[in-house]
TrEMBL record, chains A, B:
Transmembrane regions: 392-414, 420-444, 456-480
Start and end residues of each CBS domain: 171-234, 235-291
Gene designation per UniProt: mgtE
Keywords carried by this UniProt record: CBS domain, Cell membrane, Magnesium, Membrane, Metal-binding, Transmembrane, Transmembrane helix, Transport
Protein name (database record): Magnesium transporter MgtE
PROSITE patterns named in the record: CBS (PS51371)
Molecular function as annotated in GO: magnesium ion transmembrane transporter activity; metal ion binding
Taxonomy, superkingdom: Bacteria
Pfam families: CBS (PF00571), MgtE (PF01769), MgtE_N (PF03448)
Subcellular location, record wording: Cell membrane; Membrane
Membrane topology listed for this record: Multi-pass membrane protein
Organism: Nitrosomonas mobilis
GO cellular component annotations of the record: plasma membrane
Amino acid sequence: MTEENQESQHTNLEEKLQKVIYLLHKYKLVDGLVRLQEDQRHHLANSIVQKQNFAGLQNMLDKLHSADIARILEALPLEDRLILWRMVTSERDGEVLLEVSDAVRQTLIEDMESHELVAAAEQLDANEIADLAPDLPSDVIEGVFRALPMEERDQLRAAMSYPEDSVGALMDFDVITVREDVRIEVVLRYLRRLGELPDHTDQLFVIDREEHFKGVLRLNQLLVNDPEKIISDVMSRETIKFHPDNKAEEATQAFERYDLISAPVITPDQKLLARLTVNDVIDFMRERADLEARNQAGLSEEEDLFAPVWKSVHNRWAWLAINLITAFIASRVIGLFEDSIEKLVALAALMPIVASVGGNSGNQTITMIVRAIALGQINLESSMYKLIAKEIGVSIINGIIWGSVVGLFTYALYQNYQLGLLIALAMLLNLLLAALVGVLIPLIRKKLGRDPALGSSVMITAVTDSGGFFIFLGLATWFLL
Amino acid sequence: MTEENQESQHTNLEEKLQKVIYLLHKYKLVDGLVRLQEDQRHHLANSIVQKQNFAGLQNMLDKLHSADIARILEALPLEDRLILWRMVTSERDGEVLLEVSDAVRQTLIEDMESHELVAAAEQLDANEIADLAPDLPSDVIEGVFRALPMEERDQLRAAMSYPEDSVGALMDFDVITVREDVRIEVVLRYLRRLGELPDHTDQLFVIDREEHFKGVLRLNQLLVNDPEKIISDVMSRETIKFHPDNKAEEATQAFERYDLISAPVITPDQKLLARLTVNDVIDFMRERADLEARNQAGLSEEEDLFAPVWKSVHNRWAWLAINLITAFIASRVIGLFEDSIEKLVALAALMPIVASVGGNSGNQTITMIVRAIALGQINLESSMYKLIAKEIGVSIINGIIWGSVVGLFTYALYQNYQLGLLIALAMLLNLLLAALVGVLIPLIRKKLGRDPALGSSVMITAVTDSGGFFIFLGLATWFLL
């Protein structure tokens, strides 16, 4: 590299560093999040900008939590992101890769050599490697596999064998086990020898010689009981436990309801396999919420904010295509009544009102029902009929109220009372349709074993649009023309 | 009560009990959630049904976690719900009231006498009473207040004084404090005397004589260190702490990122006030996610699945009214072009396609931006321009692709190539509008200090509907007719 090149690159870098430092400041504003002292940060920031002190930035990055580095990487456009990424000390590459979103992770991985990726993965636990695995090239995974000790290889294989939304995909293997026939004193000495406990250790797991799960020993019990007591006298035998193929969503609800911090994961033959921690559960909840928000809006995958345009187009393609099909159908429904519209053009201006209010009302119903299914509130046949009756009742009242409003609006505009009556009736019918379909779509999808929420908004809107146009234009054609 | 009355009530009750028992079974199917042994449950269920063994049901209820009772209450229609509610032992009324949703809580509270409510609230901690307070009649709150010891009164006052979305509204007062100049041995003896530690105690809080917060002492440190060591040598001084008026959402993100179980809440003058636990944070996350789903669908409040019809109508009223106004506006935009539609009625059939695809695409953009704002990814001016440029790029490509598809469809249907070109152009323009407004709405709302997400879907759809109709019909009027 020539000197000139180096010079210009430095000026460029300085600009980028200022951005990074700005972001560091920005993110440290909340007092609660301060890990560095305020003056330390100022000093570091100044020394970096003034002296182009790269070692200073490195020092600063080293003091940040991996999650914070991940956050800053996500907020930077691609080019700047890679400059900062290369400054992150390689021992922390693995941790940072775990913390960033899938979309951003891909951009970072593309920037790394295979041997760097293998080195990064080796610093992680088996369950963490399993989380990264879908994004890693196959030669890297093989490399990691060869480098792992036998026990961890088995764990990695186990963790990778469960579907993404199962407990098996979330569990970790950081369990500390004890026997039930020893004294607390012995356990205390054992822990002191270990020197450090895994994060989120609120309890130890009690197993027998064949690794069968016997119960849990909460750290609290270790602390408040006489050290001479035997473990079997202070452990809890009735505890909440999971199988690796339980649904992650069910585990999440159990953690929420019973305020758990960790729970054992056991095999069908009652052997202790791993544990699930509240931290895994929170991550799952967040990912799930993101997924739902994306599905609602019609985004197929997580999207890097600074993804190239063509990637974003690809991500949004599928749902736009579905939307286009439903719009075509609605258009053809209107096409059926072109003669009527030609005779009374006011129909064209009024028809979107019927469709739109129906769509909104249907979305309200479907959201209620999807949520009730998720919380397990709909189990009895009798509840189901009660619900349908209720939603129909709501839609009749809404139909009468809003139908009258729209009817009066129509009369005021077009001085045609027949048209006013007709649109009021069409509103009522479309709201009834919305209520019925809004209850039935999620219930039927649930019966078929599908996710009741996925694409529900698109489906209900398709029904209320085409249905609304058909009802309104059909009624007009029959009674008015 | 006459004997006959009692008889018929019993038969009715038996039916209802069977329902309850069915639900109990249903909810215990996941092995992980079993607290009762399988055979115990069967035995209980049978004895209740056969002998109308109310004591048996009571026994069963007593063994269930309060969160499970809450869940069953939520799944039962109002009448059945109250029968079960009256069977719950009064010592657990408070806990169950805490666990149910706001809407269901109101139905339970309406069924209770003032003195029962006071008794229920008295069993709770100050921070828990503060959570219930908005739903309690004022005479009950006064009664509770009088019954509390002085210290808890102060705590209750403190907890009630912070807004719902602040750390102060989530914190609890179950802190165990120690001094930094004592030996581990002394702390261990102290804990043994306490006999039990509050839930989610992963660390003790170190304070000085004036209650100033000095740092935390993790239970792990107590266990793995030599009992002769002094606390100041093993405690952590740099830790994440919160102020009671920090935003709850920020605290949530910190818990997620740094994998916290508990964290200290301190006053501006550095005194230890309370703590925040992962359990409070999870509850907040769930409530927040529910709120967002409701806002998306246009529901104002949490709605009891079995709420009376008129209550549901009231809950859904506001957003339907807003929707109606935007639909009226769109209708008037179409009204402007009635002459054109009369001349070329195909316009009426085609115009919803332009509006609908624009709405979907705009929702995709706005969802991306709202999420990026929530994660703090948009802070730099330069990022903002990059984002706008990217979204415009995406909409141009989408406009060309989908515009061509719709143009060809139109040509195939109406054999009018001008109309095909025109709708393709209108699609492109409406997608551009959707991208621009989809980026700007949330950014402007954020600048104004508002919630970028609230009602964003309604707003973008209003713009793309009216805008889509205007662009398409306007272009047709100018160029085609």
